[in-house]
Write a structure and sequence with these properties.
By secondary structure, this protein is mainly alpha-helical. It contains seven helices and two strands, in the order H-H-H-H-H-E-E-H-H. It is globular and about 55 Å long.
Amino acid sequence: MDTRKLATATLLGVVIAVVKSPFTFPITDYLIIIEVPILALSFLLLGRGGATYTGLINGVIQSAVKVTFFPYDLIFAVSYGVLVDLFGTLFKVRIDGKTRTLRLVAALALASTVLGVGIAYVFLAFNLSSSLGLSGYSTTTLLEVVYAPIVIWGIISGALGGFISARVWEKNLKSRFKSVQP
């Protein structure tokens, strides 16, 4: 394993945590626009497992800062990395050393959608809305007013993040790091 790549992926996880840690729900869910391209770059940098590693670093730091949401921040951060790695691999984002932009856009949009729906389900199933001061609202209201916009934003930011990360990788970073074929 190239220590320079590993150090860069670790730094990317720290960047996500530094940006998201000061905030709570729902602001953190809207900051996914920053998280998406960073996870994609980690996948492109390290190959399979890169986004998961970066998500783990992010989750550990956020869990240490926001102790009240301890297992959830860690689980969601690692899950997001796993989804980026999974869909990036399934969609064959990298072919012959070239990044396929549309495939990366689709993979990240799908990963963001799956995670957004999963987070909404967990918050409703475990009644975590009350810990956020949303206990007076019905499930229908929460779905329409709180969770649906977050899922929609996740799809949009996933697609936009895929486009941004593909461009940044191909034009700026690919030549600095000889990429690993995922």
